[in-house]
Amino acid sequence: MSTQQSASRSQRLNQITHEPHGRLDALVKAHAPFETPAGYARFVVAQYLFQSELVALYNDAQLGSLIPDLPARCRAEAARADLADLDTEIPSPVAGAVTNPSQAEALGWLFVSEGSKLGAAFLIKRAEGLGLSETFGARHLAEPAGGRAEGWKTFTRTLDSLVFTPEQEAEADKGALDAFNRFTVLLEHAYTAESA
Ligand code: HEM
Hints:
- The protein is mainly α.
- It has one domain (9-20, 33-192): Heme Oxygenase, Chain A.
- The protein has ten helices and no strands.
- It has helices spanning 9-16, 18-30, 37-53, 55-58, 61-66, 70-73, 76-85, 103-128, 148-161, 166-192.
- Residues 14, 17, 21, 24-25, 28, 112, 115-116, 118-119, 122-123, 183 line the site of protoporphyrin IX containing FE.
- Protoporphyrin IX containing FE binds at residues 14, 17, 21, 24-25, 28, 112, 115-116, 118-119, 122-123, 183.
């Protein structure tokens, strides 16, 4: 309706990923990642694989000109350090990583990666139950400097301020949905691979 305020881009991305998020949340829980250290290590393998596939995006100069603290937001190194804490080998890359996405598509991926820091507030509490912390084993779930809410707000504010064509809006949607699919693939890989 013309009198209705249209949702922001980040609100739309939130809406279209609501279902995939619910499915992924259930899948994570089905693997009971916080029951045992070994189960948790598998979860970190998935997180590491996902984050390591996004390193090029977090360090992309053009994306960085839009989001100035982008490189500092990357959690690949934190996840790698967690794997070392857990005496877990760095997994080999898994075929099918995102390559050369358009800028809008890349922002859809980053939306998902950055959004996952919100749920991490709950996950780190569970990890603490295994004796882990933001300085050992659960570094990648740590609260970012400046706070989770603030980091998310500045990310979405920037994302929402960009002028997109309808094609770019569709690319951003695709990037966000692809990111959820990819995390699902990597999670299943991490829990089934014999020596991932
Ligand atoms: C790879 C991507 C993601 C993964 C693996 C993930 C995983 C999870 C999991 C497992 C929980 C449940 C925590 C608990 O109840 O103990 C959760 C909660 C949450 N997630 Fe995500 N998430 C992802 C992306 C996102 C995105 C993109 C957003 C925001 C747009 C988001 C926002 C939240 C919020 C606000 C919660 C808190 C509880 C709730 O409202 O359901 N997550 N997430």
